[in-house]
Input
Amino acid sequence: MINTIQYLEQNPSIVTLLKEKKASLVGITELEEKAILDSFDEELRVENRLWN
Output
């Protein structure tokens, strides 16, 4: 799964497609996909707080 997360970090447009349900992660359960997407949302919130 770490390879998937690293790939998504390098390709943020894929994260957008996943959130819009226009793409899916093969070999990743729905629960794992939700956790991955939630972590990207949390990362964004933390970055925004640092700039405010």
The chain has a mean pLDDT of 84.
